[in-house]
Design goal:
Blueprint (H helix, E strand, L loop, with lengths): L5 E6 L6 H13 L4 E7 H4 L3 H13 L4 E9 L11 H4 L4 E5 L15 H17 L5 E2 L19 H14 L2 E5 L11 H17 L4 E4 L12 H10 L13
Parallel strand pairs: 1-2, 2-3, 3-4, 4-5, 5-6, 6-7
Helix pairs in contact: 1-3, 5-6, 6-7, 7-8
Amino acid sequence: MRLISYDAHVNLDAASETSEVGQFVRAAEAAGLQAVALVTSYAAAGSSAADAAERLRVVASASRVQVIPALQTEILDTSGRIRAPASICQSFPLVLVNLGEQTAAVGHDVPVRWAQLIDNIFASLMGAIGTGLVNVLAYPFNLGRFPAPVTPGELPTDRVEELGDAMAAAEVACELCNRAWWWYPDLSVDEFTEEFARVLQAFSRCGVKFIAGSDCSDINGVGNLRYVQRLMQEAGIQRSQLVDIAQL
């Protein structure tokens, strides 16, 4: 498989100066990438996230690599409400959203009934898609380190396909995350890969597009998508199914 020409998830949480951001862009150039999405965390940046977007545009103007300013924010509850306000989301061409510790009834205050937890997980994701503010589900089903872990193999296929239909209709992509295995310390990498590939196959049947990201926070990780390529091979995902972030 040919190398993927972009990295759609490079975290900037530790980069506070324009020069530091520039090093991530240089790393993308060194890796031979055509484009890189530099991600600001709303949890870390808050209302200054819009300023970060403008700073990234300045960096982008001086780079031969296409730089896409991106924002990552968390789902807060089962209605799909997200932490970042609409005005901030609209400052970025790429908005990633994820389940997290602050997601009520999933990341905390977890219900006793397993069936209710499953309902909460899918309601949270469906609601976030329905906001119209989201482009990507970041590391979807990152549930292995939550108070009540749920493995990819335990997700009902019909619910995954229902979510996939909604994602395809709303043009919300599924992230193929190079660190996806990290969320499941109780599964071997092989076990996780096999289980998660079945989820990705269900999404693929629904016409969901995918986006490839390293989820790195260090210049040495920019463009490291080896595990993403393994997931693509396991799930039968073709390059043509990847979103071209250079077109954003």
